[in-house]
Amino acid sequence: MSHTVIIGGGIIGGSILYHLYKNGYTGKTTVIERKSQLSQESTSLSAGGFRNIWSTKVNLKLTNYSIEAFKMFKEELGENIGFEQIGYLFTYYEEGFEAIKKFKPELDKNNVRTELLKPEEIKRYVPGFIPTIDHIDKEENEILKMREIAGGLFGPDCGMFNPTSASNRYFEYSKEKNPQKIEIKLNAEVKKILFSGNKTIGVELTDNTIIEGDTVILAAGAFSGDLLKKSVNNEEYWIPIVPWKRMLFTVKMPHIENFEKIPMTIIDNGVYFHPEKSNLLVGRADPLQPFGYDYKPEPAYYEEQMNYYMAARIPGMDHCRIISNQSMWGGLYEHNTQDKNGIIGFHSDLENLFIATGFSGHGVMEAPAIGLSASEMILDKTYKTIPEVNDLAFERFRKNQLIKETIVI
Ligand SMILES: Cc1cc2nc3c(=O)[nH]c(=O)nc-3n(C[C@H](O)[C@H](O)[C@H](O)COP(=O)(O)OP(=O)(O)OC[C@H]3O[C@@H](n4cnc5c(N)ncnc54)[C@H](O)[C@@H]3O)c2cc1C
What we know:
With 409 residues, the chain is of the alpha/beta class.
């Protein structure tokens, strides 16, 4: 009987497990998770946003599929995952708005519903929004460098969900349906992936236990790059994945009528925010953040890089302080330094090693499609549903065929 080893108990590992059995896998699987509970790394530290607005075909396809899967989650897996299509609203300066206007027909062609908004129309979705800059102190704006908003793009099918619930349910459901075939090992850390020649034969844990497997799936999120480095000496076999801290802050909501109904909104300096119960969850990906395993939230980062911009666009936002020390956190992107997109598929040189990581800030929203695609490739050796997933193979780095995504947050 075949034996699959999944390294990583996050939403990617969970979705692969679920889809393997759904699509007819009859072998055994061992899931290995270093923490004492499943789904406690990036999956639970993420903002839980999903969108189908992308510039690359593969991301359009992966997210369109995944949104439909999230919509059906309760029916299919019996769990409410807090799926809410509250929409995403991007705001743009002039050149960005011209570019997105030109790109809109491509979105239309791919069944991505969007609405272009004039500056004054943004208020319809974000009450109080000020697209102009006349009210901003000139000296202050020399630092902020804010410009007039030329327009917006609203995607009504985008929204938010609870990735921890979805991830846990993938594991729980799979185990319920296949109790004899699935083992989930918690508090178990893979020290290295084992090879015989270039063929993957299993993993060794930090307590020296060896778990043999004829397919090993690397879904260890931000730890995946270092784990592969520890497992093979040849640099050419490594994957360009590094841990990169991203911070989120829960802050008070401004006193503006209906503000709790706003979509996920992206403004100047890449600041994004969305309602989180009666508060706002605010984030911004810092391009200057050094790579590394750093989780520490920095309140000064919120004050300096986010709040000024929010206050300039929304009246009263300067009073929206961080709620408490417990309401902010840092988590790790499994950042792909080459093109900020996932790496999925069998490794070109290491036989039987399947990679599913590197999603760089969009892993939870693509998880259903990644799980489905992985199961198809592992069981049938082809991507039947979303052939574009071939674009995300490890081989693209060798061929220098990077998949550069331009609609990033
Ligand atoms: C602040 C923040 C906001 C984000 N917002 C969004 C968003 O809005 N939308 C979106 O789609 N994505 C978002 N992301 C990205 C998203 O969280 C990730 O892409 C996604 O969680 C990846 O899932 P995963 O299962 O691969 O990784 P993880 O959830 O990190 O799971 C990997 C698991 O592997 C385990 N592991 C690691 N090494 C080993 C080992 N050696 N042995 C055993 N187990 C191991 C870890 O403990 C972990 O549980 C965000 C990320 C962060 C940090």
